[in-house]
Amino acid sequence: MKNQQIFPGIILIGFGAYFLLEQTGLTIFHQFSTWPTLLIIVGIAFLGQGYRTNEHESILPGVIMAGFGLHFHLVGKVSFWPSNNIGMLILIISLGYFLRFQKTSKGLFQAFLFLILAGLLLFYDKVISYFDLLQNGMGFIWKFWPALLIVVGIYFLLKKKK
Q1: Which of 3-17, 29-43, 58-72 has the highest mean pLDDT?
Q2: For the purposes of burial, counting CB atoms within 10 Å of the CB of 104, is it exposed (0-12), middle (13-18) or buried (19 or more)?
Q3: DSSP line for 52-70
Q4: At 26, phi and psi to the nearest 5?
């Protein structure tokens, strides 16, 4: 019973602090008075639930929400932070799967799949510039990679479990 109070407790404390700081009108907190901050608060609540109560399935949504919030806070404000939103969001999902795998031993394949996809999206231009000879072939693959994802997805849906 006590463990079930962690998620709503963190949500209430986080939202209460958020709205209290918003009401103060202090300029130092003005940059954090945005929707990504709310995502971070909800993500931290999920992570707290996942780690404190051993409900490890909450780790993945926690990392995704906190990571998305952090990404949207940092993009455009920190010089080294990538501006490729899709690549970063998929990388954050991959990180969530890796952290969940650490506790549940489930989802390692998905973690690596998302990691590879994120790498392709984040570093596509750099990889292609290094391999000029492969540019035409990669261009063809890049054009049809969604169809490849659909075929692989259908395979996993139709694959019989042993």
Answers
A1: 58-72
A2: middle
A3: HS--GGGHHHHHHHHHHHH
A4: -65, 135
Cβ(86)–Cβ(117) below 8 Å:
no
**Which distant-in-sequence residues (6+ apart) come within 8 Å of 108 by Cβ?**
97, 98, 101
Residue 76, by phi and psi: left (phi above 0), alpha (psi -120 to 50) or beta? Answer: left
Please count the other Cβ atoms lying within 10 Å of the Cβ belonging to residue 67.
Answer: 21
Helices (H) and strands (E) in the chain, counts: 7, 0
Token pair listed for 13: 């404390």
Between 22 and 111, the more confident residue is 111
Return the pLDDT at 69. Answer: 92
Write the DSSP assignment of 18-34 as a string of letters: HHHHHHHT-HHHHTT-S
Q: Is residue 4 a contact partner of residue 45, using CB atoms and an 8 Å limit?
A: no
Identify the helix (H) or strand (E) that includes residue 35.
Answer: helix 35-52
Q: Which two tokens stand for residue 58?
A: 């909450």
Measured between alpha carbons, how far is 70 from 77 in angstroms, rounded to an integer?
11
